[in-house]
Amino acid sequence: MTSYKEKKVISIGIVSELTGLSLRKIRYYEERGLITPERIGNGGSRRYSFADVETLMKIAEKREEGVQTSEIKKELVKERNQKQVRNQMIRGQINAHFNIRK
């Protein structure tokens, strides 16, 4: 089941209002691979999650500190990998505790 934070339901206009970032900056961060909105419909409207909004806020803070987008991307990839490893470890512990075999 997908967490509410991960559901892609927010339009780019609302994301812009929530973050204070221009539409152009949001699209730029997408082009740089820092965020990945879902595309829906024939026009390919972008939909973002609450997690994407949080990520955009982190990106904006880092950019204000002078951090380059390439460095931000490296940090984001590292965080995602750590989260995946942590989730796998937790699943393994739960499976071991309840004697669940795959």
Describe this entry's structure for a reader.
By secondary structure, this protein is mainly alpha-helical. It has helices spanning 12-19, 23-31, 50-64, 69-97, and strands spanning 10-11, 38-40, 45-48. The protein has a single domain, classed as Multidrug-efflux Transporter Regulator, Chain: A, Domain 2. It contains 4 helices and 3 strands, in the order βααββαα. The longest helix is centred in the C-terminal third of the chain and has 29 residues, at 69-97. The model has no long low-confidence stretch (mean pLDDT 93). InterPro entries: DNA-bd_dom_put_sf (IPR009061), MerR-type_HTH_dom (IPR000551), MerR_fam (IPR047057). This is DNA-binding transcriptional MerR regulator.
- How helix-rich are the residues, as a percent range? 55-70%
Number of separate structural domains: 1
* Low-confidence parts: none
Strand content: 5-15%
Main sheet strand line-up: 1-3-2
Taken in chain order, the helices and strands follow as EHHEEHH
Here the CATH topology equals Multidrug-efflux Transporter Regulator, Chain: A, Domain 2
Which structural class do the helices and strands define? Answer: mainly alpha
**Could you give the count of β-strands?**
3
Tell me which CATH architecture applies here.
Orthogonal Bundle
CATH class: Mainly Alpha
The value of Rg in angstroms is: 17 Å
- Counted by DSSP, the helix tally is 4
Give the biggest beta sheet. 3 strands, antiparallel
Q: How would you describe the shape?
A: globular
CA distance, first residue to last residue: 19 Å
Mean pLDDT across all amino acids: 93
**Quaternary structure state of the chains depicted:** single chain
